[in-house]
């Protein structure tokens, strides 16, 4: 029999509804797990023990009154780069060590308004800058499957917390793969919806034209359930779409027989693709074929430029977005002999090295004389990458690829080689650049016991197909 903290959202919701246990008991089970494991894993920066139990009591009252929603009474965690009202939100950077937002991000407000129980804030790469969760100023997150390995990034804390049953699910943010890659490393489900499907209001911006909010869950069904609650238009975010939100949880368990699945050859020709990852992905392709899907090879010729494009566009947008972090308006302020010195010292001590590196790259790419050569050219190639996807989706319903070219690597193994770390996003960044929905599903383990995720990519606003296919692969 499962411990309460090991339940899925679906199982926990059914148990609460049938009065098998209370939200207080469910929340306490998660808090106990956090106390037992967080010192080792470092998945949480802030734990809201007192307020979580209070919220759980309120949720139990809503359930008793028959006013419960699908996420009422379910304990969840939030990436620390997402604002939560009256709960410290640091983005894992010391410059925001004392920042307490007066408001919830829209997606968090939707969950809390129906009685979701906020357990705390998850560690992450500072401001989302990283692929290993080693760029946090609060220490690295360790992989629950092997404490010597990274959890992935930037949402490593969220993925590790879900994988280790410290929470029932988590809400995270994905710019270039920050939900999917750590989900793959930690053996859970990570879903990035289409750009504009979920509101970005209240998300600490990194690359505004790529940032997307999504769930990290234990099952694909749970991701569908959460998406139903958080998706939709938001007047506070002009990039959100007006399209109605489908019934994802009803669609997810539908049949996939006859669906056309594309295998983009460029992903499988990549130098450095781990053979165990390749084998597990090929097994899932064979599984889809057995379920009646039509498999065909396709080409995304501009995929090879995705990482280069990503690491010009995102640092450029970073350099603009992080200009507000000056130690004056909010956050930690260092002493200085004049205004310039105050700015310089606040940023020098408040930003980790990777954040400084990206600001410098972005500022350079946007500077006079280099804008056309770098940023403008990157945006041109971005359009070509997007067109590649659009053309392929005229022939197939979805694509299947590895989520990462390799399983979780050792802590400090790539830390001193930024370019090697950037390549960790090579499988996930193309869909981000094109604004397409993508899902990482746990599909097996290596001989060393490390999880391997397989990625399903769909056409823009084609979340139903992605979730439906992913549900059949889940293991």
Q: Any overview of this molecule?
A:
With 475 residues, the protein is α/β, with parallel strands linked by helices. It has a domain at 4-251: Amidase signature (AS) domain (Amidase signature (AS) enzymes, Alpha-Beta Complex), CATH 3.90.1300. It is built from 17 helices and 13 strands. It has helices at 9-17, 23-41, 49-64, 106-113, 156-163, 180-186, 220-230, 248-251, 265-268, 275-290, 306-321, 339-350, 353-366, 372-392, 418-422, 429-434, 463-473; strands spanning 44-47, 75-79, 117-122, 142-143, 146-150, 169-174, 189-192, 212-217, 260-264, 294-298, 398-402, 438-445, 451-457. The longest helix has 21 residues, at 372-392.
What number is the mean pLDDT? 95
User: What's the total helix number?
Assistant: 17
Shape: globular
- The H/E string reads HHEHEHEEEHEHEEHHEHHEHHHHEHHEEH
Could you say what the CATH topology of the domain at 4-251 is called? Amidase signature (AS) enzymes
């Amino acid at each position: 029999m499962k411990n309460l903290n090991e339940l899925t959202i679906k199982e926990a919701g059914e148990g609460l509804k049938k009065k098998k246990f209370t939200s207080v008991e469910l929340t306490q089970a998660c808090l106990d797990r956090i106390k037992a494991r967080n010192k080792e894993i470092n998945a949480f920066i802030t734990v809201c023990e007192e307020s979580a139990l209070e919220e759980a009591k309120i949720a139990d009252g809503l359930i008793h009154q028959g006013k419960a929603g699908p996420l009422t009474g379910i304990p969840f965690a939030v990436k620390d780069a997402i604002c939560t009202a009256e709960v410290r939100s640091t983005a894992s950077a010391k410059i925001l060590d004392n920042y307490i937002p007066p408001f919830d991000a829209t997606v968090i407000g939707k969950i809390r308004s129906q009685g979701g129980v906020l357990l705390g804030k998850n560690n992450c790469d500072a401001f989302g800058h990283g692929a290993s969760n080693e760029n946090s100023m609060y220490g690295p997150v360790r992989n629950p499957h092997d404490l010597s390995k990274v959890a992935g990034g930037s949402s490593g804390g969220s993925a590790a917390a879900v994988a280790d049953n410290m929470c029932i699910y988590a809400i995270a943010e994905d710019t270039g793969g920050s939900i999917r890659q750590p989900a793959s490393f930690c053996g859970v489900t990570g879903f990035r919806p289409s750009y504009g499907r979920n509101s970005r209001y209240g998300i600490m911006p990194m690359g505004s034209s790529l940032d997307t909010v999504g769930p990290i869950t234990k099952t694909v069904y749970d991701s569908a359930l959460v998406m139903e609650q958080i998706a939709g238009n938001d007047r506070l975010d002009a990039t959100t779409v007006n399209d109605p939100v489908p019934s994802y949880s009803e669609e997810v368990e539908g049949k996939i027989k006859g669906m056309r699945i594309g295998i983009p050859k460029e992903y499988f020709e990549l130098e450095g693709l781990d053979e165990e990852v390749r084998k597990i992905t090929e097994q899932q392709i064979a599984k889809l074929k057995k379920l009646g899907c039509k498999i065909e090879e396709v080409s995304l010729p501009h995929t090879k430029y995705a990482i280069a494009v990503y690491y010009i566009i995102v640092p450029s947008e970073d350099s603009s977005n992080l200009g507000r972090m000056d130690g004056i308006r909010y956050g930690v302020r260092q002493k200085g002999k004049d205004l310039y010195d105050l700015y310089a010292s606040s940023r020098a001590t408040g930003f980790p090295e990777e954040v400084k590196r990206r600001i410098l790259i972005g500022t350079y790419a946007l500077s006079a004389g280099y804008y056309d050569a770098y940023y403008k050219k990157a945006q041109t190639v971005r359009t070509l990458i997007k067109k590649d996807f659009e053309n392929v989706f005229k022939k197939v319903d979805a694509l299947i690829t590895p989520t990462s070219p390799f399983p979780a690597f050792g802590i400090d193994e790539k830390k001193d080689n930024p370019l090697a770390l950037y390549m960790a996003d090579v499988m996930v960044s193309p869909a981000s650049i094109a604004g397409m929905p993508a899902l990482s599903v746990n599909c097996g383990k290596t001989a060393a016991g490390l999880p391997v995720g397989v990625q399903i990519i769909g056409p823009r606003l084609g979340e139903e197909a992605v979730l439906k296919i992913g549900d059949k692969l889940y293991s």
